[in-house]
Structure formats: structure tokens, C-alpha cells
Amino acid sequence: MNLDKKDLSYLRNNISFLKENNTITIEKGVSADVLNKLNEILNDISSIKLILFCDPNKTNRDNLFRNLDVLQFLNNLKHISIIVGSSTPLESIDKIDYIKDLQSFSLGGFYNKKINLNVLKKHNNLKELSFEHSINKKDYSIIKDSLVKIKLKDINLEYVSKNTNLKELVILDNVQNEHLLTQKYPSLKTIKLSFCKKIADFSFLNELLDLENISFNRVNTITEVPSLKSKIIKRLEFLNCKNLQNIHNIVSYKKLEKLAITDANIEFGEIKKIAKNMLLDTFYFRSKDNSETNEFESLALKYQFQNSHAGFWK
């Protein structure tokens, strides 16, 4: 629900919708009375997430507050995603200090890569943390053992402490000291890796016994489906992994429900075997060869599985 330039009556009339949607967006500014009312609502509905679109070039005007200035009214807020769209980088997130008990935080877009993150250190109940750009070594102290989900551009596992609470790890570019993964995050259920050009051996995933969901996106160093000890793999995703050839290990995942493979280097006969022999709810396949993609659509109808990526992660 967008609150830009809305009045009190709009907010009051849409509380039921807000309870269902659980999301507020702000970009162009909101009045103090509406923000104060929203803070009251946040006290009752703690699951509401604020998606805050920031432009450091724009300032408050006409009694409308925008950017991180809205946070002075929202001390009950627990979940925030900041997206910076501007020709000028965001230089500070210090106004996060207005928030009493932050539980999820995300920062993306154009912000200073050396931005000070110390304001996050006091929030010991953080469950989710996401940064679009790399964080500095000194900032690894904000990666607390309360976290359940982490999304980072890259991570050096030597700098993190053991966290048995972490269930989901999303890496957008690279993992360093990957051999420490099971030691540091032994309870992972979901791991999503993109690029990871410096990793040639993915055996570091083998010992994650609770692992259920794996995604590889544009990981050109992966040539075969990993052989994992986890017996509960439910989702496997290989998107644009152009050197993936060997998929024989897929048949060992007896609990597999959803599989996605696009633009790989796999013999189509192997794809047909999986379509025929594995009882999958979803098998999304796209080939560089349009004739194979078209034939696969017929296989989806024949074996009655969903050939779509929509809802893959739901």
C-alpha cells in the first residue's frame, strides 16, 4: 500500500487491507499525522514492512516527510527495505537509530560502499539482513547469530561466527573460505548462489544435512549436479549455468518436488529421462535449442508436471 501524500482517512479506511498485505511503500512524502497514526498501527501489527524509496537529492517540503526522515515518527517499525534511486549516493543510515527493535533490514541501490553500519549493532533481534554491495571486514560484527536469513553480494566465512539459527543464505557474487560453510552455518535449509566464478568445487555443500533448496544462477564453473548427503532436497535450480553437463545425481534426490534448468549443456535425452521417471510437481526447462524447448512442453503435458518458473520459490 502506497502512502505518498495520503491523508489520515485513507490510512484509517485501509487498515484491513494493510493487515492482509503487510507492506507500506513511501517515496514522495507523508505528513506527520499519517506517520504518527502508522506508528500506532505498527504497535499492533508488527509484521508490516516499510519499503522506503530514497533520493538524497530530494528534501522534505509542503509538510511531507520523505527519505529516512520518516523514521523519526516510526519507532515501532520492525521491518524496513531501503532502495536508493538517485544520482547522489546515500551517505548515512544513522536515522535507523529511531527504531526500537529492528528485525529485518535491507539496503539496495546507490549508496556509499563505505557507509557506516554501526547503527545496526544495537539490534540484537535482527532476523534478516540484506546488502546489495559488499560489506567491509569491520562490519562483519553486524552479522549476528540471531539471523535467520542473510543476503549479501559476497561473504568471507572466516569472518563470521557460528550461527545454528541461519536457515537461508543468498550470495550474489562470491564466497570466500567456502570450506567453512558447514562449520559456520550447519542448519542451512536454503542456499542461493550467483556467479561464484572463483569456486570450481561445490563439495562444500555435501555435509549440510538439513539442506532442502539449492539455486545456482549463472554459475559457469559448475559442470555437474552435486552429490549431497541431505536426504530432503526439495528444490533444485540451475539458471543459465552454461557448462552444466552431468545431471545423473538428480535421481538420488527422492524428495525432489521442483526442478529448474535453463541454458545448460545437457543432452536432451537426459532431460527426457528425468521428465519420465521422476514424479515432479514442477520441472521448468528452457534450452538454447528452441526445438528442445518445444518438445519439452509436450512432455510436461504428457507427464503432468508444471513447466513454469512462476511460484517456484513459494
Number of strands: 12
Strand content: 15-25%
Low-confidence stretches: none
How far the N terminus sits from the C terminus, by CA atoms, comes to: 22 Å
The largest β sheet comes out as: 12 strands, parallel
Overall helicity: 10-25%
Strand order of the largest sheet: 1-2-3-4-5-6-7-8-9-10-11-12
Mean pLDDT metric: 97
Task: Give the ordered list of helices and strands.
Answer: HHEHEEEEEEHEEEEHEH
Shape: globular
Radius of gyration: 22 Å
Total helices: the number is 6
Could you say which structural class the secondary elements and strand pairing correspond to? alpha/beta
What can be said about this structure in brief?
This protein has 314 residues and is of the alpha/beta class. It contains 6 helices and 12 strands. The chain has helices spanning 8-13, 15-21, 32-44, 181-184, 268-277, 290-303; strands at residues 23-26, 49-54, 79-84, 104-109, 128-131, 149-156, 168-176, 190-194, 213-217, 235-239, 258-262, 282-286.
Explain this structure:
The protein is of the alpha/beta class and 314 residues long. The chain is built from six helices and twelve strands. The chain has helices at residues 8-13, 15-21, 32-44, 181-184, 268-277, 290-303; strands spanning 23-26, 49-54, 79-84, 104-109, 128-131, 149-156, 168-176, 190-194, 213-217, 235-239, 258-262, 282-286. Strands 1-2-3-4-5-6-7-8-9-10-11-12 form a twelve-stranded parallel β-sheet. Strand 7 (168-176), helix 4 and strand 8 form a beta-alpha-beta unit. The longest helix has 14 residues, at 290-303. It is globular and about 65 Å long.
